Each structure stands twice: as structure tokens, then as C-alpha cells.
Amino acid sequence: MSGSTIRVLIVDDVAESRDNVEKLLRFEPDIQVVGKASSGREGIDLAVALHPDIVLMDLNMPDMDGIAATMQISTKVPTASVIMMSVQNEPDILRRAMLAGAREFLAKPFSLDELILAVRHVSRLAPRPVQVVTTAAATGSPNGRPGEVSKGRIISVVSSKGGVGRTTLATNLAVAIRRATQKQVVLVDAALHFGDVGVMMNIADGKTIADIAPQVHSLDRDLMDDVLVTHGSGVRLLLAPPTPQEAETVTAEHLRASLSLLTKMADYVVVDTRPGFDDAMLSVMDASDRILLVLTMEMTAIKDARQFLEITELLGYPMDKVLLVLNRQNTFSGIPAQDIAENLKRELVAKIPDEPAALLRSVNEGAPLVETQPDHRVSVEIKRLATSLVAEDAAEEAVVAKPAERATGLVGRLRTALRHG
């Protein structure tokens, strides 16, 4: 941004709509409308010429719609963040806007408060995390020591919906990998607004990832060591902020920088996440070597998992990057595990038994089950999963060195997928 002023470009084919948005923004002292465009193509040209901080983009326009225009602006002016506006707000529309590069979505008609909140929120996320990548390329060691090479593997634990046991698996998996290897393991709580890793590990500490945010461009081992909290198992924790308000200060850039540094400090980085495909979660998944998608034996969970897999294919992830973990396996759901695997056309790499009483006690005590009851059948299956992931990584390292960088970057892969999909 230019000083403290948020520079905004409005793109809408309806003149009245453009003027109304401009009027809403006119009396905000920190927001300046620098241009208005009546079409997607004109919007691209003005974005290139004016380099706005925010582009308010209408979705439905003749000739070139907002999706296509957003894709081009994301590439040509990566410092500009797009907020999509539309009377349509169906899930598929939201997904397409996100994949095109939009950072926020405003459903028309919106209020002054909604507009101002969106503009200011997205302005805090901008610019796109180009600087961190540039630093990495220039030094060979982003935020670390000169010449230092990444050694750690990132395993993110994700879900397409809440309540499937994602955090329970992440905490137990981190401890299981630590016990199996005695190597350095870090557990990151990337469920920023409502993270539960600290509760499940019985850790109450004031140090969180929010302490890194103000110093992200000077982040180094000393600062990270000061923020990490060591659990009794030997696993080190990077905790989520204590309040949703503090979580707002942590962006995808902060997560990307933290994960990049942690791969130089640890052998394994396990990341607990939250449902969704916002910038933060996309940055985590893009950086991951393995993504464990947790699902349960319900039709809604299976449907959501199928949609999740479709999006990861659109993102260009190889099939072996996303692994399916069936949680709470039982014999009374009426859906055999084999049918789930066949429906999703993927192997289930782990089938964790349904043991609600033991797991509830474990959560309430703040003690991972694999540590307190290592012979419990839930623990045995999680340890088997941990062992298979460790063995898989060792085999891969013996065959080929880890690539220095992934594909062509998230935005580039999305553009290619959407253009040819």
C-alpha cells in the first residue's frame, strides 16, 4: 500500500453499481478509489497501469467475466488483491472465485460496513507472499542460515468438515513419529482462530505463532526457538493464537515463512489445519509433502471428501500426495470401509477404530493416547500409520533428492488447471 492509504480499483459493467461503491468508499480517510472500469479487459489494463492494492471485481460481466479477469490480474499484478462481488453466492461460485485468485467474496447487495470490513481485512493480507519466495531463492535459506538446506518433511492433517477427529489424529501422529524415530518433530497448530492443539497436549503457554507475525521478514532460528513450546513427549509445538482477534494478524505469508524455517530445524513438521481452501490453508497444503485427509463413515463426509479430492486434482497435486485416513471405523454405520475406498477410488492408508470413550478421556486429560496407552488399538493403528509415513520418506530419499521448489507456484498451477479444465 502507498503509506497508510488503501488504493482501490472498481470493476463493474453497470455504471450505477460502480458509482454506488465509490460513494460508499468516499468518506473513508484511509481508502482511495484510483480508478473505475466497465469491463474485465479494461479492469486488467487499469490494474496493470495503476497497481491498486485492492480490486473490487464484479463476477458477471459481458465479454470477459470476473473469474477470467481475476486470473489475469493475479498473474500480471500479483500485489493486487481481488475481492469478488456477485448476486450469486452458491458454493460452486465461491470455489471458482477462490481458485481464480480472489481473496474475499461480497454477496450483493452488501452494506457499507461489510464493504469496508472486507477491504480493510484483505488489505492486511496483501501483498501476496512474493517476498518470502524471493528471499528463499536468493539466499538458498529463507530466514535461516546461509546455505542451509531443508531436511524436514511436512505432513498436514486436513478435513473437508469439522468434527471428524482431525486434531486428535494430528497430535497423536506427531507423538507417534517422535517415539518411532527419536528425531526432531514439530507440531504446528494452523487452525488459527480456534486451535485446540494446546488443550489436547495440556500446554498453556503465552507464546504462539502470533508472536512471529510482526517479525516475519527477520524470522530466524533464535526467534522460532523462543516461540516453540516443548511437550513432555519431546514434540515441539507452534501454537495457535489464544483469540480469534489475534489470529487475524497471522496470514498465509507468516505460515509459509514459518514452515519454510521449520523444515530446516526439524525432521518432521506435522500441521493441524481447519476445513476450507483459504489462502492460509492453501499455503500449508502447497508446502506439504503429504496431506492426510481425514474422513468418517458418513455419506456427508464421503461426499465432502470426494469434492476435496477434486479440488486437489485441480490444484495439480499428484495423487500420492493426498492420502485418505478413515477415522472412527465401526461395523454399525452400514457403509463398509472397502466401499468407501472404491467410491473415492483411493486406498485408505489407515483405518482408526471408533473408540469414543478412550479418546474423550485422552482429550480431557490433555494426554495423547499413543503416549498413555500405547497398546490401545487406536494407538496401534496410528503408530502403524506413523511408521509407514517414515518408511515411505526414507525410501523416497534413497531414490531421489527432494526438489528445490514445487511446480510453478500455486497461482500458476491454478491458472493452468482452470484454463484447460
Describe the structure.
The protein is an alpha/beta fold and 421 residues long. The radius of gyration is 22 Å and the shape is globular. The chain has helices spanning 15-26, 40-50, 66-76, 91-100, 112-125, 130-139, 166-181, 197-200, 221-227, 244-247, 252-265, 279-287, 299-314, 337-344, 356-365, 369-372, 377-399, 410-420; strands spanning 6-11, 31-37, 54-58, 81-86, 104-107, 153-158, 185-189, 229-230, 236-238, 268-272, 290-295, 322-329, 348-353. Residues 126-144 and 398-421 have low confidence and may be disordered. It has two domains: 6-128, Rossmann fold; 146-420, Rossmann fold. An eight-stranded mixed sheet has the order 8-9-7-10-6-11-12-13, sandwiched between helices.
Q: What percent of residues are in strands?
A: 15-25%
Number of structurally distinct domains: 2
Which CATH top level class of the largest domain fits? Alpha Beta
Question: What structural class do helix, strand and pairing data support?
Answer: alpha/beta
CATH-level-2 architecture of the largest domain: 3-Layer(aba) Sandwich
CATH topology of the largest domain: Rossmann fold
Distance between the termini: 34 Å
| Biggest sheet features | 8 strands, mixed
Task: Describe this structure in a few short sentences.
The chain has 421 residues and is α/β, with parallel strands linked by helices. The protein has 18 helices and 13 strands. It folds into 2 domains: 6-128, Rossmann fold, CATH 3.40.50.2300; 146-420, P-loop containing nucleotide triphosphate hydrolases (Rossmann fold, 3-Layer(aba) Sandwich), CATH 3.40.50.300.
